[in-house]
What does this fold into?
Amino acid sequence: MAFRAVHAEWGTVFSHLPDLGCGQAWEAVWKVRPPGRIACAECRHPMHAKTSYSGLRFFAHAPHAPDCEIARQGESEAHHLLKLELASAARDAGAHAELEVRAPDGSWRADVLATDPAGTWRIALEAQLSPITAPDITARTERMSEDGVTSCWFSDRPRPPWLGAVPSVRLATADGGGLVVAEGLVKFTGSGWAVPPGVSLTDFLRWVFTGKVLPHAPRTRLRYPLLRQLEQVWTAPQYATAEDVYLVEEAKRQRELEEQRARFQARAAVKRAETDKKNAASRRAALERATAAEADARRLHDTRAGARWQAQLMTRRGVRQAVEHMAGEHGITATGGLSITDRRWAGGTPLIGEDGVPVAVLAPESALVNGEAFRLLAGMLLLFLTVKDQQRFDRNTRRRRRVPIDGWRMAYIETPAPKAAEKAAPKGAVPRCRRAGGPCTCPEPDLSVTISGRLHSAEPADRMTPAAALYTALCSTCGGPYDKPWRRRAA
It folds into this structure.
């Protein structure tokens, strides 16, 4: 299927032109006897004038045609119609348009070659409806460019994958039936690219021929919806300049924003440093007061009573594990503090280092973290028996907005369940009471009892005494209550 042929007398004829381009009617070559003397412009094989079912006029090779490129093209009717539309629009735009023009060396063939009547430029208008890759279409464009022929590719398919890889546009049919540019022609509108509505194919080609629109690689986002971001678009030079101005202004705005952010961060850093300095001073003062309170608590007990207090504290749930954690993880030798009833520990157990300075707090209660307790605990390591206890403390203090600016320093100590510990005990071991409050079963219990706020030493007895009826003695060895008769030990 071809639209151009060579007549023996009239020269080159075009089937799509009303006068065949030589002043003759279509009927002069169509269904005439003898057949019109027309031949292929490439191989010079005889051709016949034909009409398709839809009324499209074209030339076809006679039987036994040689290996001719035109004969091998096998182009669809839609492709030929689009070429006719391109040729017609090019002529309406003031250019000379010729179909199926071949390069002198045969390296390329233009569907429609539009030329300036004065001969100053040549533009190939390519109708591309069949699938093609972006590298292939780029190579074909470069081959024509080497001969001084620029090109523009056209398609009326919904989403041609090569669109934008070369100078190209996508066409669509308008309500009135004409072709308009649907994608590939844009204008800059302040901060991005948009599609101008309803530009006809003829107007677009007129702008291309006169240099009013040029190929451009956009550097800002194409804002129109549902369409792709193209590597190349057609736009007017003033819109490309507007994009340059916008990018310069946007770079200036970004630079000013970065400078403003840097100033804000610098002020915030100074303020944070001042806050950290104040917090460090308040935490240091709170730690000094806590150290003094622990020293006062130790002075209230004689050496023997203090040792018993220490032994009793070590039997509290988790204290021994916490002491072992401090020794193993931090290399700190710690013991339970005697100022355990002080509110500054928020219901937790203080762990005191060898120099008498508190080093950690075991299992503080989130509801008691206020005032002096908050200032002290904010700078200390908080230990919890389980990860759930740690998470609960963190969650509750955040809910109450009682969290230091640098967060809590926390760790947890997983302890085995009581039943698992009993099962793991070796055979023949001395039975020990459960730390959850089971009675003492030690063969030689070390008893102590608190009466009227004072700690007294006790020992097993043969019969119940008045003190044993009112108070419960605790075993310092296993930490369990002693439920048998006992009596106070003589001083």
